[in-house]
Fold this protein.
Amino acid sequence: MPDLLSVPPTHLQLSREQVLWLTEQIAQHPGEEVCGLIAGRGATAARFIAIPNRSQTPQTHFQMDENKLFQALKSIDDAQETLLATYHTHPKPHSASRPSQADIVTLGRDWPHTLHVIAVHKQRDLHLKAWHIAPDEVISVPITVDSALSPPVIQERLSSAQQVAIILATILSVALVVIIAITLLPPPPDLTLPLR
Ligand SMILES: [Zn+2]
């Protein structure tokens, strides 16, 4: 067994390439949960290891292939890495990236010392969340991507129309602030009055 942390990391550092790789994995298994392990050092993920989902109901559950799981754990050990997290996806429309009741029971029981990343792909956005499932509570753990604090939604590049809209909105809001500032100014002194 690879090193197990007594306490899971308080955050998880992923790279943009790993997030894109996970997006491709999801695209290759439409409608099914994909799963695997995240290995690394400290809080930084070195690699994602895909493991086939052997669940009889892969649309709503995952069960990692036992042989592949064993191989993955051995390779993490051989590389002197730490098992940081499990990952899986929730493919159903309107899914949430929080653990299901089944996740809380099985992940909390089988993997108490790792984090659990849950990904939901909605249209063109990948929602990623990491969780620590403790015996009495489920705690959200922040994910950073490429050393920038990741938003809960990782958006694809904006289209040029969206960029123009954002620039226009910024200009308009600046103009509005200037107008408000001018209207709030006190009236100018009446310089026509004779000075005493
Ligand atoms: Zn789940």
Observations:
- Residues 160-184 form the longest helix (25 residues).
- The beta strands are 12-14, 35-41, 44-51, 82-89, 115-122, 125-133, 138-141, 143-145, 148-149, 153-154.
- The pocket of zinc ion is lined by residues 88, 90, 99-100, 103, 118 (CB under 6 Å).
- The mean pLDDT is 83.
